[in-house]
Amino acid sequence: MTSFEEAGTEETVTCLHMTFYHPYQQDKMMFRCLNFRKREQVRADEMAKFGRDSNVCRYNLMDSRVSRIQFSLQFYRKLNSSEFCFEIKNMSKKTKLIVDQTELGYLNKIDLPWKCIICFGDYQILAEIQEGEAMDYFETHLHLAEVPILQERCLPSLQPIPENGISSSCFPSQGKSPIEIDENE
């Protein structure tokens, strides 16, 4: 047997790709502390925190309008499943966090869809999960967008835009359909 045949099987790693956009990035450089060059490993038992407090947050946003801890991501495995997921929690008392069409208040949390847009203030983050098998850690790979993510996601849509000016195609519904409720119920 050769050393290639004896080598252990390499397991794939779950990777969270995050593309960041802010309209004043060129002027204010609020992403200057983020590492856009390479993937970073995060231990599975660590909570990935985003905010302006460099003593607490792994991912720092250099903006006084961002909360000390804006939001956190927790890596976990679903019960009775081999599927790995992320849970996103709003840690800001002042700013609501919007994940696709779901608005999260302080300490509210939901499962992060496999592909979604996270918004707070003027920040837009496209999050995409690349599935893997490793249980001890996951990776993050950060990207910087040149154009607004919401604008970029809306351009290819040929659907009519409703009168309120918000196109539902900007926010993937992840299989959720509207529910009609009688106002007397």
TrEMBL record:
One of its GO terms (cellular component) is cytoplasm. Keywords: Cytoplasm, Immunity, Innate immunity. GO terms for biological process: innate immune response; positive regulation of canonical NF-kappaB signal transduction. CDD domains: FHA_TIFA (cd22714). It is found in: Cytoplasm. The keyword S-adenosyl-L-methionine does not apply. It comes from the Eukaryota. Residues 166-176 have a biased composition (Polar residues). The keyword Cytoplasm applies. Residues 49-121 form the FHA domain. Residues 166-185 are annotated as: Disordered. Belongs to the TIFA family. This is TRAF-interacting protein with FHA domain-containing protein A. It comes from Thalassarche chlororhynchos. The lineage of its organism: Eukaryota, Metazoa, Chordata, Craniata, Vertebrata.
